[in-house]
């Protein structure tokens, strides 16, 4: 007797209900957002940041902070990554996109303590659905990169901010302008940067101007990022220790009575 026949002979209360399986919708990242609406997303970012703050990985060794590179193709993210990894610069005759995922870690001395920063780069593929979620997952910070010589790579950063807020909950966001040593007709001005910062509200945790070619400001940028991440994480850890924790089944009154009893003995 086939399986279908056997199921038909079972009592009604023993039949398993038929489940309607709905296909899971494909996750897609928003590809367009008006920079003027960034103030709205700044509130979402602050709510996420308060709900799940970035913190160091509690494991053996120094605290480790994951930082992801975000930005358009050709802004020099790979050059920034190479400066971070081994302090080198490669002059390329043509644009060459990073293939796959690059990751490197460096130690920084912050307030007398070793702090590890892990930098991740996908060459712009972070906006692809097949790699985006794993790239953003667990990120403590994102470094938004643009070319000082190309305003298009600057104005599109509002889309990346939305992606970060949606996919890397609680991550700090830093802004980095590369190729600061060069001049051009389409150069991003100080007024452009000030307007962008004003539109972002409290989203940005740091703004930097660097030159990978001349090695200007790169190390100082990463060290300052490590300082911001580590000091905030340590501050939150101190705050959690200072907060009074109520055990299950206790009320604040019971705990206060227990404290008074201990002090009186």
Topology, element by element:
Blueprint: H1 3-9, H2 38-51, E1 64-71, H3 77-86, E2 102-110, E3 113-121, H4 129-136, E4 141-147, H5 151-155, H6 157-167, E5 172-178, H7 190-200, E6 204-209, H8 218-242, H9 252-264
Parallel strand pairs: 1-3, 1-4, 4-5, 5-6
Antiparallel strand pairs: 2-3
Helix pairs in contact: 2-6
How much of the polypeptide forms β-strand, as a percent range? 15-25%
Report the end-to-end length measured between terminal Cα atoms. Answer: 79 Å
Structural class: alpha/beta
Parts with pLDDT < 50 across at least 5 consecutive residues: 1-10, 24-31
Strand segment tally: 6
Largest β sheet strand count, sense and barrel closure: 6 strands, mixed
What is the overall number of helices?
9
* Lateral strand order in the biggest sheet: 2-3-1-4-5-6
Would you tell me the overall average pLDDT? 76
* C-alpha geometry: globular
Fraction of helical residues = 25-40%
Account of the protein in words:
The protein is of the alpha/beta class and 265 residues long. The chain is 39% helix and 17% strand. The chain contains 9 helices and 6 strands. A 6-stranded mixed sheet has the order 2-3-1-4-5-6, with helices on both faces. The protein is globular and about 55 Å long. 29% of the residues are buried.
């Amino acid at each position: 007797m086939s399986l279908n026949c056997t199921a038909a002979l079972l009592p009604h209360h023993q039949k398993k209900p038929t489940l309607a399986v709905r296909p899971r919708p494909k996750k897609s990242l928003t590809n367009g957002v008006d920079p003027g609406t960034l103030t709205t997303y700044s509130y979402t970012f602050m709510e996420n940041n308060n709900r799940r703050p970035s913190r160091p990985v509690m494991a053996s060794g120094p605290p480790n902070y994951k930082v992801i590179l975000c930005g358009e193709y050709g802004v020099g993210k790979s050059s920034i990554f190479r400066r971070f990894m081994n302090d080198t610069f490669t002059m390329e005759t043509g644009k060459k996109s990073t293939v796959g995922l690059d990751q490197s870690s460096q130690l920084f001395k912050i307030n007398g303590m070793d702090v590890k920063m892990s930098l991740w780069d996908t060459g712009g593929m972070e906006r692809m659905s097949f790699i985006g979620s794993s790239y953003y997952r667990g990120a403590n910070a994102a470094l938004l990169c643009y070319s000082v010589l190309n305003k298009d790579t600057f104005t599109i950063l509002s889309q990346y901010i939305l992606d970060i807020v949606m996919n890397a909950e609680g991550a700090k966001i830093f802004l980095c302008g590369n190729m600061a040593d060069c001049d051009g007709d389409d150069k991003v001005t100080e007024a452009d940067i000030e307007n962008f910062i004003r539109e972002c509200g409290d989203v940005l945790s740091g703004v930097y101007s660097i030159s990978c070619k001349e090695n200007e400001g790169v190390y100082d940028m990463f060290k300052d990022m490590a300082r911001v991440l580590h000091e905030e994480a340590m501050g939150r850890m101190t705050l959690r220790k200072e907060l009074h924790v109520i055990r299950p089944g206790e009320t604040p009154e019971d705990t206060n009575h227990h404290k008074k009893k201990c002090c009186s003995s």
